[in-house]
């Protein structure tokens, strides 16, 4: 995957794209690593189903959002996409869905790893993720260790001294870009770890000069989304014109009917007035009347 970087796009009408202010994060990691639980901790609500299970709980990529310092934080939870037993065709389908949800590209990829449970399977899944996203995605990767509560108060740096070599190598490779979460935490503890992570995300964004991760697939997805938006905008514009014309026609018809009615009422009033008006005594009428009362008549 040839990775490239893009600045946030502007909309064609010149207004700032609402996605400009977003922070888009994707949770990746092996099944059961605690991706959904981490998503819920960041969102501070149970948005993604999360439970202890040998089989994958999350079946499809899902999106949730929250706000942080006036910015929209968009989180995409993924299934165990990169588990070694998941067929590549399935993975590809879900990656496409994930791309649509995080288009035009995520600012950070949170690689979720359970503390003290990093098996060979986890290691293989991690390698698959890194290969899949490509070399340049590395700048955007943050290691997110879950199950901090299992450390029973031990400092994470003390834990690292005796941690599996693979974990220590990861930390070195990602230059200490990590966060440790207790997904069972509530209140101030939950708030603090969320704050630490989002500050780290901001740090990653700053180091990348505000750029998000993208690649040719993301760009194609974004082009497709923009095309669809345009088609919808044109459809709604045409529909709006059609409804406006229909309303105008109906109103004109109504006005025409009212005018006719008023005209008829006016005509009727005029006729009524004419009928009620006393008849004028014309000379012929007078002579006729006089004739009727002529004295000769009495003879
Ligand atoms: N005690 C404790 N349990 C955790 C922690 N993080 C996750 N869990 C538990 O681990 C189990 C698996 O977590 P999920 O969030 O469902 O894991 P997932 O990576 O989303 O799993 P899939 O959706 O199957 O890929 C759940 O029972 C969580 O409650 C943590 O920090 N501490
Ligand atoms: Mg899940």
Structural class: alpha/beta
Which ions, cofactors or small ligands are bound in this entry? guanosine-5'-triphosphate, magnesium ion
Strand content: 5-15%
Individual helix count: 8
CA-based gyration radius: 39 Å
In the sheet with the most strands, the strands line up as 3-4-2-5-6-7
Query: And the CATH topology?
Result: Rossmann fold
Number of strands: 8
Q: What is the helix content?
A: 40-55%
Q: How many domains comprise the coordinates?
A: 1
In CATH, the homologous superfamily goes by the name: P-loop containing nucleotide triphosphate hydrolases
Protein name: GTPase IMAP family member 4-like
Pfam family, one: AIG1
Domain AIG1-type G: 20-222
Keywords: GTP-binding, Nucleotide-binding
Helix/strand layout:
Elements: E1 3-6, E2 23-28, H1 35-43, E3 62-68, E4 71-77, H2 88-102, E5 108-114, H3 120-133, E6 141-146, H4 156-161, H5 165-173, E7 178-180, H6 187-207, E8 212-215, H7 216-276, H8 283-292
Parallel strand pairs: 2-4, 2-5, 5-6, 6-7
Antiparallel strand pairs: 1-8, 3-4
């Amino acid at each position: 995957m040839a990775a490239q970087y893009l600045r946030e796009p502007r909309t064609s009408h010149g207004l700032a794209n609402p996605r400009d202010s977003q922070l888009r994060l994707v949770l990746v990691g092996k099944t059961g690593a605690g991706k959904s639980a981490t998503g819920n901790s960041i969102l501070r609500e149970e948005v993604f189903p999360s439970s202890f299970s040998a089989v994958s709980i999350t079946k499809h990529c899902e999106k949730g959002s929250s706000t942080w310092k006036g910015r929209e934080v968009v989180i995409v939870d993924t299934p165990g996409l990169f588990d070694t037993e998941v067929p590549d065709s399935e993975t590809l389908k879900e990656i496409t869905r994930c791309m649509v949800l995080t288009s035009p590209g995520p600012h950070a990829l949170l690689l979720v790893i359970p503390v003290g449970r990093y098996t060979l399977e986890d290691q293989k899944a991690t390698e698959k993720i890194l290969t899949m996203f490509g070399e340049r995605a590395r700048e955007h990767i943050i290691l997110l260790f879950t199950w901090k509560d299992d450390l029973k108060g031990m400092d994470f740096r003390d834990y690292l001294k005796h941690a599996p070599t693979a974990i220590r190598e990861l930390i070195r490779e990602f230059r200490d870009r990590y966060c440790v979460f207790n997904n069972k935490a509530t209140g101030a503890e939950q708030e603090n770890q969320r704050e630490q992570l989002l500050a780290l995300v901001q740090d990653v964004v700053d180091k990348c000069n505000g750029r998000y991760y993208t690649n040719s697939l993301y760009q194609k997805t974004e082009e497709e989304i923009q095309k669809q938006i345009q088609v919808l905008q044109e459809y709604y514009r045409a529909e709006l014109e059609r409804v406006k014309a229909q309303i105008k026609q109906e109103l004109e018809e109504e006005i025409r009917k009212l005018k006719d009615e008023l005209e008829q009422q006016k005509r009727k009033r005029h006729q009524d007035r004419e009928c009620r008006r006393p008849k004028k005594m014309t000379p012929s009428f007078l002579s006729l009347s006089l004739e009727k009362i002529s004295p000769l008549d009495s003879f």
